[in-house]
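Consortium newsletter contribution from the modelling node. Members have asked for a concrete example of what our holo predictions look like. Here is one, prepared for the oxalic acid complex that several groups have been discussing at recent meetings.
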Amino acid sequence: MTAPVTFLYKSDPVRGRIWAEVFQRHAPEIDFRIWPDVGNASSVRYLAAWEPPADIAERFPNLQVLFSSGAGVDQFDFAALPPDLPVVRMVEPGIIRGMVEYVTHAVLGLHRDMAAYRRQQKQAAWKPLQVKTAAERRVGVLGLGSLGQAVLTQLTAFGFECAGWSRSRHAVEGVQCFAGEGELGAFLARTDVLVCLLPLTDSTRGFLNAKLFAQLPRGASLVQVGRGPQGVDADLIAALDAGHLGEAVLDVTEPEPLPPEHPFWRHPHIQLTPHIASMTQPSSAAEVVIDNLRRFDRGEAMLGLVDRARGY
Ligand code: NDP
Ligand code: OXD
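And here is the predicted structure:
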């Protein structure tokens, strides 16, 4: 008789029930459980969590893979995890589609001056602004991962002049790709709308600061969908107040939720959303995770495997 294998899900329980249905359909041999219904802790081989329980090595001595229930893994304390435990971030079509929608909406809104029209409406001011073509608007995406590349593919289809920047060199059709610190300045200098889709790591904390903003052309805008601690709030406000930056669309802040007294709430050139740019879609996520389990069983690389040294 083979030992039972448990997949433990510790995140939103309503979404967990959809995961359970998908596992029942496609991987009935796996004992799928939703936290806190752990069952026999020594049967837990796989854990999907946003925040794993403390002491997972002691609690689940046979744990083989930790899946993040979201795209980011910055919420994990890697030092508290067993050093050899593979960690997998979420790369699934639903979360990618959501991000493409959000960023496309934000970029189109900035491109077509929607924030200016909202302000004009408050003054009952009927004042057409010059319409530029998409080809005249240069969009630059920080991060050419699963989300950054998908976003760029859509923006390219709208006709924007697109570029991307990443740590290592990439090739994306129709996109001018920049790589590394040495090419950051050139990337920023040609960017009218800057989209941040970087993971939060030691090297991206505080990245969106005065020095970076100063390298963008005057009037450029920011769409921040990465993580709040990547931004330096006072530098952003100073750049907006000085007119060096035109608008900022922020989906992530530090802290979250943003306290009511924070100046971002009332700044006339900031649009805020409460970290909803994209969400893992339970049905497609469970399918991707099952596919990864099959890969793991066959000894193949899992999609979204995190490089712990890089932090993403
Ligand atoms: P990936 O890991 O697939 O891609 C990350 C990209 O960032 C890679 O291209 C990587 O470069 C680049 N990068 C990382 N560090 C650096 C650095 N120091 N300098 C230059 N480039 C760097 O991540 P995803 O695309 O899946 O997700 C990106 C982030 O989006 C997530 O980590 C999360 O924070 C955020 N997110 C936000 C959501 C929201 O609702 N607001 C929802 C989902 C995700 P290289 O390719 O060379 O490795
Ligand atoms: C994620 C997020 O990382 O929602 O999935 O931010």
